[in-house]
């Protein structure tokens, strides 16, 4: 009895669970997201100090980190709800707040309160764009044709398009690119494009054929060379190519939506046609026997 009484069993509370240890590889996506967040905050610091070119490079670096974290998370099977929320917060700071502050300090401060209202409108549209994207992930799966496109411009693309007048100013001077009239209209248009439902290109669904892999790699290397030697004309060409692709994606989305509607109508009509084929055929009219009381002519 003494031996049994000396053993005291303690029960652990059921509401608490031990957190499983995470490997370093599974933490890499979150680290990249934090690097993107830090780059966006650093861009704001550069803008406050008047170093606008460094601020642009910081936002571009944030876009590179943002493009890598999601893909690496899927490759490492390290996706989580925590990572998704952290990525959304980082996107709002890096591509919503930082570009808005940058454009305000670069040109829109000349309009004082009106300039601040315009850049604030862009930041609000960026937040709404990210919130809509998060709700679409949790909602029902979209139609197959919609999965190939984004609804409106994504946050990184919107930030890049927003800074397009700055690229012109850095390359050819501020005599027109820094005009608050031009930038006010431009900022408002990009903000509306972000919250619109205009289909834009999504690189996630693009598949490169095997015989185009080597030319694609050569093209990436050539673009990198131009980016390091002539960054502003290269970024202007990238922005122009993205804007030029919007009519093409709208036309492609219209064709895919029309093909999907035709396929749905055919699929809906197939059961009715099959049921019609199973009904017995009616006998010919001349083979129908007349009633007994009918005169035959």
What topology does this entry show?
Blueprint (H helix, E strand, L loop, with lengths): L1 H4 L18 H25 L3 H24 L5 H26 L6 H26 L10 E3 L3 H8 L1 H9 L1 H4 L2 H16 L3 E3 L11 H17 L1 H48 L19
Antiparallel strand pairs: 1-2
Helix pairs in contact: 2-3, 2-4, 3-4, 4-5, 4-6, 5-9, 6-9, 7-11, 10-11
What does the model show?
By secondary structure, this protein is mainly alpha-helical. The chain has a single domain (27-268), classed as CDP-alcohol phosphotransferase transmembrane (TM) domain (Four Helix Bundle (Hemerythrin (Met), subunit A), Up-down Bundle), CATH 1.20.120. Helices cover 70% and strands 2% of the residues. It has eleven helices and two strands, in the order αααααβααααβαα. It has a two-stranded antiparallel ribbon. Helix 2 (24-48) runs antiparallel to helix 3 and helix 4 runs antiparallel to helix 5 (113-138). The longest helix has 48 residues, at 231-278. The radius of gyration is 30 Å and the shape is globular.
């Amino acid at each position: 009895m003494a031996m049994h009484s000396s053993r005291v069993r303690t029960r652990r509370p059921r509401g608490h669970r031990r957190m499983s240890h995470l490997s370093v590889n599974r933490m890499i996506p979150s680290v990249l997201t934090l690097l993107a967040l830090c780059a966006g905050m650093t861009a704001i610091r550069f803008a406050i100090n008047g170093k606008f070119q460094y601020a642009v490079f910081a936002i571009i670096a944030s876009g590179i980190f943002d493009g890598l974290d999601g893909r690496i998370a899927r490759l490492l099977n390290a996706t989580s709800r925590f990572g998704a929320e952290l990525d959304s917060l980082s996107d709002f700071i890096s591509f919503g707040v930082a570009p808005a502050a940058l454009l305000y300090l670069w040109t829109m401060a000349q309009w004082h309160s009106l300039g601040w209202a315009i850049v604030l409108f862009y930041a609000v549209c960026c937040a709404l764009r990210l919130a809509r994207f998060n709700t679409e992930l949790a909602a029902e799966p979209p139609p197959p044709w919609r999965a190939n496109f984004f609804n409106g411009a994504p946050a990184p693309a919107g930030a890049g398009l927003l800074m397009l007048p700055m690229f012109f100013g850095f390359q050819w001077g501020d005599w027109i690119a820094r005009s608050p009239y031009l930038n006010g209209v431009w900022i408002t248009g990009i903000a509306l494009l972000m919250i619109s439902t205009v289909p834009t290109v999504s690189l996630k669904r693009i598949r490169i054929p095997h015989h185009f892999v080597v030319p694609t790699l050569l093209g990436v290397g050539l673009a990198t060379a131009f980016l390091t030697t002539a960054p502003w004309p290269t970024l202007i060409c990238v922005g122009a190519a993205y804007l030029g692709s919007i009519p093409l994606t709208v036309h492609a989305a219209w064709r895919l939506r029309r093909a999907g509607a035709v396929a749905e109508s055919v699929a809906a009509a197939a059961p009715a046609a099959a049921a019609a084929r199973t009904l017995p055929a009616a006998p010919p009219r001349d083979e129908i026997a007349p009633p007994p009381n009918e005169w035959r002519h």
